[in-house]
DNA sequence: ACCTCACATCAAAAACTTTTGATATGTTTC
DNA sequence: GAAACATATCAAAAGTTTTTGATGTGAGGT
């Protein structure tokens, strides 16, 4: 688990942009080449590249370069990690004393 | 499940800011009054109010007004919903054909 | 009724993210 | 090696979110 709130927040940045959710939906069907994502999203080439960078840096998506092309897919590990982190961040903990100031 | 990518993205906005993660951590220990959150976060009064609005609008946190005060807590329903949505957005689907253009 | 307190709202500024078009890098094909 | 292509990077502009301080609103106490 990352230690700082900034690091944890970064993981969820992957999911808070509609273009990235569209890309993830395309990738749910299996590995896709950037050219397919470009065709099937509303993004231009450099815009796609920008979003793919965010998705891969957060570990949700894996990029597999192969010659001229890059193939992208959802990382099962990254997925499991984000789900575990979300659970962790919202899981109730045993309160030692109910903090009722008011 | 919300229908548009914008609506889905909004849910994860709750988790992509360090101040909001700090607030969620405080709320994991149980319901807290805004005054406690104010004390234990780096926010000013209006900043806290801004973030609490985002957290309650996404359904992750519930605000319970009681006279002058508002008590906040993590919504077990909102939590379950966000987790389910994250799973859904990243779950592999049966690919009818592997889209291998390149 | 008036004062005080908790919280919400507002508007402007600051900070950050995304888009866009241009240019760079690296790979394949001739 | 030159051309053609895929992707990355860059810098500026556009858009969005967050912070800040001031003011509004509604509850409770006197």
Structural description of this entry:
Two copies of one chain form a homodimer. By secondary structure, chain A is an alpha+beta fold. Chain A is built from five helices and three strands. Chain A has a single domain, classed as Winged helix-like DNA-binding domain superfamily/Winged helix DNA-binding domain (Arc Repressor Mutant, subunit A, Orthogonal Bundle), CATH 1.10.10.10. Helices cover 54% and strands 14% of the residues of chain A. The first copy, chain A, has a three-stranded antiparallel beta sheet with strand order 1-3-2. Chain A is elongated, with a radius of gyration of 17 Å. The model of chain A has no long low-confidence stretch (mean pLDDT 94). The interface between A and B is large, with 48 and 49 residues. The structure holds a DNA duplex (30 and 30 nucleotides).
Task: Provide a brief overview of the structure.
Two copies of one chain form a homodimer. Chain A is of the alpha+beta class and 102 residues long. Chain A has helices spanning 5-13, 18-28, 34-40, 45-57, 76-90, and strands at residues 32-33, 61-66, 69-74.
- The residue fraction in helices of chain A comes out at 40-55%
Structural class of chain A: alpha+beta
Uncertain residue ranges of chain A: none
Count of DSSP-assigned helices of chain A: 5
Q: Determine the N-to-C terminus distance of chain A.
A: 34 Å
Task: List strands and helices in order, with pairings.
Two copies of one chain form a homodimer.
Chain A (H helix, E strand, L loop, with lengths): L4 H9 L4 H11 L3 E2 H7 L4 H13 L3 E6 L2 E6 L1 H15 L12
The first copy, chain A, binds a DNA duplex (30 and 30 nucleotides) through α4.
């Amino acid at each position: 688990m990352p230690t700082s709130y900034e690091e944890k927040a970064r993981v969820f940045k992957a999911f808070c942009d509609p273009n990235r959710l569209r890309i993830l939906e395309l990738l749910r069907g299996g590995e896709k080449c950037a050219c397919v994502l470009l065709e099937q999203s509303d993004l231009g080439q450099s815009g796609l590249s920008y979003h793919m960078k965010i998705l891969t840096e957060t570990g949700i998506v894996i990029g597999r370069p192969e010659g001229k092309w890059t193939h992208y897919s959802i990382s099962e590990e990254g997925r499991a990690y984000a789900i575990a982190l979300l659970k962790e961040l919202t899981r109730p903990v045993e309160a030692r004393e109910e903090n009722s100031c008011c």
